[in-house]
Amino acid sequence: MKTYLESLNWRYATKKFDSEKVISEKDLSLLVEATRLSASSFGLQPYHVFVVKDPEIRTELRKASWGQSQITDASHLFVFASKKTFGAELIDSYLSEVSNVREIPQEGLKAYGDFMKSKLVPLPEEAKETWAAKQTYLAVGNLLSAAGVMEIDSCPMEGFEAETYDRILKLEEQDLTTSVVVALGYRSTEDETQHYKKVRRPKESLFTLI
Fold first, then answer.
1. What is the pLDDT of residues 161-210, one digit of tens each?
2. In 3D, which of 163, 201, 195, 200 has the Cα closest to residue 179?
3. Pfam families attached here (predicted)?
């Protein structure tokens, strides 16, 4: 098993996947669990993740993704859909989980719940949608890192028509909207970009120690 930094250096945004190679159910379960365990503001996770394997649906999604081959050729497609809006129910449902998992009476969580509601519920609708979309990127980062450690290739993608994705996946009726997509599978030997040296800004220009 590679070290974590070796895995980050190994991974790249795969441009061409081997359509014959499929992620095993065991590895897919690990990727799903790594995504589920991602950090999120207040732990609320205001999004839903669609793991799309159906070839017909992915053919339609490819048309809404500027024809990019990763959409159909990767083993699986993770579509992150964030909440378009929300109210106190988002916090209440989370506190119900907290109460159940930690065996804490609901009454003991009221003050914490009221605090979260005071910070989130009054936000303008546009701010709510932006906040929810940002949370998906935390989960995407976890997914990419986990895939790298498992030597599963990935490609995070923003090049798509969100409204068309929403229609195809029937997200409107769930008050969700597509925020980011991740194709996962195994690189094709024909993908020349796998041989490119990784380019990131040097530490000196990216970090300041205070």
1. 999 999 999 999 999 999 999 999 999 999 999 999 999 999 999 999 99
2. 163
3. Nitroreductase (PF00881)
Phi, psi of 50 (to 5 degrees): -100, 120
Q: Which residues of 38-68 are buried (b: 16+ CB within 10 A; e: fewer)?
A: bebeeebbbbebbebeeeebbebbbebbeeb
Domains and CATH numbers, the chain: 4-85+124-206 (3.40.109.10)
Checking if the pLDDT of 34 tops 80, the result is yes
CA atoms 23, 132, 142, 68: torsion sign: positive
Contact 166, 192 (CB under 8 A): no
How far apart are alpha carbons 202 and 36 in whole angstroms? 32
Cα–Cα dist 179/47, whole Å: 9
Residue with token string 């005071």: 118
- Contact indicator for 140, 146 with CB cutoff of 8 Å: no
Tell me the H-state helices in 64-180.
70-73, 88-102, 110-120, 125-149, 162-168
Q: Other CB atoms closer than 10 Å to residue 34's CB: what's the count?
A: 18
- Overall pTM surpassing 0.85 (yes/no): yes
**Helices and strands in the chain: count of H runs, count of E runs:** 9, 4
Q: Which helix (H) or strand (E) holds 154?
A: strand 153-157
Angle at 10 between CA 45 and CA 193, to 5 degrees: 100
Report CA 98 to chain centroid distance, whole Å. 23
